[in-house]
C-alpha cells in the first residue's frame, strides 16, 4: 500500500515547494520544516548555517527507486504465496518446510487473480453506484413532481372549496328570497284583513250615526216606521261584529315559525376529508382504493350478561360503504360474521356465558374489502342475570301478570300459562331459584326449562319442547312430553324455594326444594338452547332469583 501511495503521489512529492514558477524537482526535504527544496532553493532559503544547521535534510519520499518487498527473516524477495496460510513467502521459507503440503503459487499469479477479482467487484459496485445515481436522479425528479402535484392538488381543493362556498351562498340567497316572499305574503294577508276590518268599522260607524239621528226623531209614528228595522239591523251587525271582529285573530303569525336545519350540513363539513385513490395510469379513471382498517375504540366496547358491544372508528382518508363485524365462537375457534352495515357500533346478544370472545371489523367499498382491525377480547358474565320476558311469554294476551321489574309473575285464570326467562342457555352450568310468594289454591306449579317454541298454553312438560318438575303440597313428579314419572315425596308452601340446576357440560337438569335435592338427576341428554321456564295458574305467585352460584351436587 505504501508503494501504491508513493507512486500515486510521486509527481507531487518530487516538486520543490519554494520555486515561484515552474517548480523544479525536489532533491531534499527538511523534516523539521516539512518543506521540499530543489538545490537552488535550498541554498537560498535553507542554508546549512545558524539555527538551520541542525535541521535534518533527507531525500523526499517518492523519489526513491521502486522497491520490492523482501522477507523479514531471510532478506529475500517474497516470490511465493501460501494459499493455506494466506501469507507471502520467500523461497527459503518454502524450502525449510514451514509450509508443508500447503498449496502455494507464485505471488504474481495470486496478485493477478486478486486484482482480477477486485476489478470484477469494482465493476459490480460501479454498476450499483451508477444505478443508485440514476435512482437518486429519479427521486429528485419525483420530488419535483410531488411539488407540482401538490400545487395542482391545492388548486383543485381550493376550487372545490370555493365551489362549496358558492353553493352555500346560492342556497343562502334562495333561503333569503323564500323569507322575503313569506314576509310579503304575510303583509299582504294582514293588509287584506286590515282593509276588511276597516270597511266593517266604517259600515258600523255609519249605522251608529244613523241610529243616533233616528233616536232624535220626536214623531213617534215616524220613528216606529224604521224602529223595528233598525233594531234588527243593529242586532245582526252586533252578532256579525262579534264573529268577524271581536273573536277574529290575525290570519298569520308575526313570528317566523321556521328554523334552518343545518345539522346535516355541519356534520358533512366536519366529515369532509380526503379519500385514498387507486394508482392509475395517465388518462385512466381514478377510483377509490379499498379502505384502510377501522380502529376499535376500547373505551366504548363492553360486555354485559351474555351480550357484547363493539364500537369502532372509521378509517382516515378512506371511502367506506359499510362494515363487517366478526366474532369467534368464544373458545378461540373460527370467526363468523355477525353484522354488516354502515353503523360504527353493534351489540351482539345470545352469546355463551363465561366466554372470551374475540372481535374484529373490516371496511369495504366498491373497490373491495380492507384489512381487519386489531382484535379485541370481551369476556361475558360468569353467571347469568335475567328476568321473565313478557314478550317471549306470549305478550299482553297471555294472561300473565308481571311485576317487580319482571322478576315476579302471577296469573288470574285457572288454565296453566308458561312464562319464559329473557335468556337462553346452550353451554355452561347455570342455577336459578324461585320463591313461592303466594300458594293458596290446590294447584301444581311446574318449574324447568323449555325451547323457544314451547306451547305456552299448557302445563310445562306437557309437550316435547319442555322439561319440568311439577309439585304440590306433598310430592313432585318429573314430566316431559306428557310423561310423568319418579314421584318424590316433599312438597311446597308459601315461602318455599325451588332451585333449578341446568348443567350443559353434562347435559343434565336437576331440581332442589328448600336447598335440598329433589330426587336424583331429572333429565339427561339435553342439547340445544334452553330458556328458564315456569307454568302457573290462579293462586300462585313466584319471584325469580338469578346470578346465583351453582350448588355442588353429590351425585354428579
Structure description:
It is a single chain. With 556 residues, the protein is α+β, with helices and mostly antiparallel strands. It is 30% helix and 24% strand. The chain contains six helices and 28 strands. A seven-stranded antiparallel β-sheet has the order 16-17-28-19-24-25-26, with no helix packed on it. The protein has a six-stranded antiparallel β-sheet with strand order 18-27-20-21-22-23, with no helix packed on it. Strands 10, 11, 13, 14 and 15 form a five-stranded antiparallel β-sheet that branches. β22 and β23 (483-489) form a beta hairpin. The mean pLDDT is 86.
In short:
By secondary structure, this protein is of the alpha+beta class.
What layout of secondary structure does this protein have?
Layout: H1 2-13, E1 28-30, E2 35-37, H2 39-45, E3 57-58, E4 80-82, E5 87-89, H3 91-95, E6 104-106, H4 107-215, H5 220-246, H6 263-270, E7 295-296, E8 302-304, E9 307-313, E10 322-327, E11 336-341, E12 345-348, E13 356-365, E14 368-369, E15 376-379, E16 400-403, E17 408-411, E18 417-420, E19 429-439, E20 446-450, E21 466-471, E22 475-480, E23 483-489, E24 497-503, E25 508-513, E26 516-517, E27 531-536, E28 540-545
Antiparallel strand pairs: 1-2, 1-3, 4-5, 4-6, 7-9, 8-9, 9-12, 10-11, 10-13, 13-14, 13-15, 16-17, 17-28, 18-27, 19-24, 19-28, 20-21, 20-27, 21-22, 22-23, 24-25, 25-26
